[in-house]
Every structure is written in structure tokens, then in C-alpha cells.
Amino acid sequence: MQKSRSALDHDLTQNREDILRMGSMVESLIHWSLNSEGVVSIGQVTEGAQRGTTIRERIEKRSLQMLATQHPAARDLRCVIAAMHIARELERSVHHCSGIARLNAHDEEVRRYAILQHMREHAMTMTHSSMDAYVRGDAKLALETAARDEVLDESRTLLMRTMLTTDSQPAAPVLLRAIWTAHNLERIGDRVVNICERVVFEATGHLSDASLPASRRWMENTTA
Amino acid sequence: MNSSTAPISAPALPWIQPQIGIQRAAARNGDAKMTLEDVSVFYGAFCALRDVNLQVRDRRITAVIGPSGCGKSTLLRSLNRMNDTVTGCRVEGRLLLDGANVYDRHVDPVAVRRRVGMVFQRPNPFPKSIYENVAYGVRLQRNVPKREMDEIVERCLRDAALWDEVKDKLQRSGMTLSGGQQQRLCIARAIAVQPEVILMDEPCSALDPIATVRIEELMQSLKRDYAIVIVTHNLQQASRASDYCAMMMMRSDRAGELIEFGETAALFTTPQDKRTEDYVSGRFG
């Protein structure tokens, strides 16, 4: 049993390290996909996306082996399930970053919008914070992080309203790229919310929609 | 209450004529079939089980898990007064079957065991024919015409998922069957006397995985009619086969205690007690 237990601990640690590796990669890609001083190349983006998929597949394969051979239970089981979900969310975030980079690889104009830079910073902070909550198993921090998603939602709405109603409307291609960029950043925020839900699940066993205020209040009371 | 002081039954009590059909029709799925209230079991001065409070629900499977020596088997054996056969064994508290105390001084332990059957760790068929193994208990209860007995034997063997394998060799010795078949024969023997609760003490520990699966499937079909309590060291078996789970642990004074009870899915995913968490996660030893 001791041998099995240590094997399970080893695999759980590996999963955790892989998740953090992906989280770090997402943060980095968010930063570089919309950096005003220059974005990553398409090749780098593609490589990042492939790497994200590879790590996600590795986590899923390892998790499957753990389920089949180690029969994890209680928190161990929740860790395995949560890792699979979080890996999927991070992989999707990588794809959103790829989308942003592709949109802006050859055009500096969109990158100059302050509101998009603000959204970029916010998405990075949220991703970082969700990884902190994951490492610490901190449900409270996860809920606080999920609550910050409203900023991205509001920013995207504000950007669209501003750009569509302003007298000095940019050219259609720029307008569309800006909207799609904002959309991708907003979706990264949604992914972070999903990650936070899984962190709460792993820490407490409760699974609920962290984006709904009622659910958040309920979970806050439960995890207090 | 010492077993040796328990007199043979009083005719007025329901234990002799349990009116199984009437009682079972009134019971609803999931109702408490047996209730333990502050049950403690002593072997002489040694307390093997302390202050257990638990409900065994009708038509549900309740698994009892925990490390060796925590009192699982003692708890199981106290449910049908099997501990009465142990010299110096004493039970305190109330152990109710359909609201009536099993350890009431007027209750006949044999009548209790008729209502609360038991299947043991090792298959223990009588050294008799397959047919006689099933018919034996029924015959002790009452005289049954041959034709009716044939029907009872067939029904019980069918319910135990053994009929198709033995229908052509009913007069062969039960000892000639494989281990898994012998265990199912023991289950057929147990249900032949129409119990209401079936206790199983590690029924699959001596069986291979295929026979184990058959017993677990059998348990799922039996729970439509019976409350089942199973003691098992196999956590996977407890998690996949039971509806409710009782986690037991040994206290510092070596007495067994119930530390957590709840729905199996909850106990294996979100246990409330740290000791349960550690045990089901394999963090022990």
C-alpha cells in the first residue's frame, strides 16, 4: 500500500507541476500576444499551442492511469478530476492567446488601445491568481479571482460601445481585430473562472458556477 | 445483556410470527430497517465497540469499512446476536429491528437470526446436496410438501444467480462447487428462510475477481428485497457496491467506534472526517 501511495503522490505532484507549467505558459503568451513592443511570431504561437496540447494530453494520460491503477478517493480523486479540467481550460486559454497573436501579428494599431492593454494585464493577473489559488488549495482566493472576471466583461462591453459609437471610428479591419481581441481576452477570463470553480471543488468538494453571484455567495459561506 | 441470560421466546412477541409480507409491504425503500442506539459490545472487561449509532436502511446496501481490529465484524455479528455464542460477550445500548429491540430479554436469538441472515467470509456449504443446502433451513422452520420445496429451492437458486449452473446436478454435493458457486449457494441458503436483512462478512475475500463481480451483481439484485450489510476490507468494493458506508476506527483504548456514516459517493469523494479521508486515500500504516 505504501508503494501505491507513494506512486499516487508522485503522479499527483507531476500533474500539479504540469498544470503550473501550463499556467506559466498562458501568462507568458497573454503578455506577448498583445505586447505593445512587439508580439510573438506566428511560429512561436503555434509552438506554444502545440506544447499546451502536449502537456494537456500528458496530464489526461497520467490521470487515466491513476484512475485505473491507483483508485484515488476523496481529495486525491478530486485532485485528479480537477487537474484534467484545469488542463483543458488552460489549453483553451493558450488557443485564445494564439488567436490574439494572429490577429495582431502584423498590425500595431490595435495593440495601442489602452483598454485592451488593461484587459491584457487583468487577464494575466487573473491567470496568475488562479494558479496561486490552485497551488495553495485556497478556495477563498479562487472565489475572489473568479469575481474579477466582471472587469473583463465590462471592459469588452465598453470597448465595443465606444468603438461602435465614436465619431472617429477606425477602419473596419482594425475595428474587427480590436473586437475579436477583446473577445479572446474576455474568454480567457471565463476560463479562469472555470479553473477557479475546479480549485474550489478540489479544496471543498463543492461544485458550483462561480460566475453567478448567488453561487459565489453560497460557496463563500460554505468555504468560510 | 449477556446472551446466556436470554430466555427462549415468548409466544406473544412478533419474533415467532414475523409476518414478513405485511411488514415488508409497509416498509419503504430507504427506511431504517435496523437502528443502533449507543451500542457498545464488551468481551469480558474489554470494550470492543463503543457507543455506535447507526441506521441500516431497508433495500439498501450498507458497507462497513475500517482497519483491522476496529470492530467491524463485532458490529456485524451483534446485529443478529451471533456474538451470543461468545462467552462473556455483553451488549449495551439498543439495537432495534423494525423498532423492536433485538436484545430484549424475551427475544429468541434463533428467531432474530431467521430475520437477519448471515453469509460468512469463507463459503461454508453443508456437506449435503445442493438441493438440501437450500432446503435445510426451510425444513427446520416448517413442514413443506415436496413440490413446494422444489419451487422454493429453484426460486432461491435463481435469486442467487446459481440456478442455470446447477439445475442439472441438484443432488450433487455442495462441496463439489467452485468457491464462487459455494458462496452463492450460501446466499441461496440464507435467503431460503426469507430473512429481511442479510449480513455479509467479507463475502468475496476468498474469491477471484470474476466470482467477486458475480457476488456484487447478486447483491444489487438482492437489495430489491433485502437490507444488506457488508463488511469489507476492499475499499473499491465498498465504493462500487454499497449505497451507504460506515467508517470505523479503533480508539486509543482499542475500542472500535463509528467515526463517519453517510452516502457512499459522498464518503469517498468528500469525507468529513480527516481519519476517513486518510483511510480511503490509503494514507495509513
The DSSP helix count of chain A reads 8
Q: What would CATH call the class of chain A?
A: Mainly Alpha
Question: How would you sum up the global shape of chain A?
Answer: globular
CA(first)-CA(last) distance of chain B: 35 Å
Can you write the helix and strand succession of chain B as a string? HEEEHEEHEHHHHEHEHEEHH
The CATH H-level homologous superfamily of chain B:
P-loop containing nucleotide triphosphate hydrolases
Per CATH, which architecture of chain B? 3-Layer(aba) Sandwich
| Mean pLDDT rating of chain B | 88
| Main sheet specs of chain A | none
Poorly predicted spans of chain A: none
CATH topology of chain B: Rossmann fold
Question: How many discrete structural domains of chain B?
Answer: 1
Please report the total strand number of chain A as a whole number. Answer: 0
Helix proportion range of chain A = over 70%
Name of the level-1 CATH class of chain B: Alpha Beta
